[in-house]
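Check my protein:
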Amino acid sequence: MSFMDVFKKSFLEGYASVNIQAAEIIVCMLVTVLIAVYIFAIYRVMTRTSFYNRNFNLSLIALAVITASVILTIQSNIVISLGMVGALSIVRFRTAIKDPMDLVFLFWSISVGIICGAGFAVIAVVASVVLTVIILLFDRMPVSRAAVILLVNTSDYKTESRIMDVVKQYCSMYQVKARNLTKDKLNMAIEVRTDAGGSLVEQLMDLESVTSASLVDHDGEVTF
């Protein structure tokens, strides 16, 4: 018997396939779908974006099921698993993830598919429950009030000192972000944190040379 015959008998034939019963596949898919639907519901509740992306949420379910199917296939046949690794290595994803929490849910969905496909559904359930508790717990923790942008336009460029006096009176934190000065006008953008936005704007408008004052929320990082 040649070396190739021994290799084929001991490796390829011995590990080419693993019998996975249809019942095991069905149970794996059902558990994966149930956990994926749970992730779908948690994402719908936790999302903070103004425009809810339903397609992304649906993709979380599809990703979990597809990943579980891939893991089951890899377990059943080593030859197919090697070919699948080569095929998946050419896949490139170009969609940008804007919210870090979207990345968490994406990785959560893929991990559930891997764990359930490997036959450790209990770990997937426990990990999902623990992750949900962590997200809900830290989401409800009090945080500092987010800063807003104060935009002030004035017809007298010498009014800046009076504007800043009013800002100091109503704001616990302030920082000038932009200052646009012309011969007869001054436009300022100031990052502020205040609990009396209405009073601040009214007080600024009482200044003689101020033509407009407004507060604008922004999606940047909160300065602590």
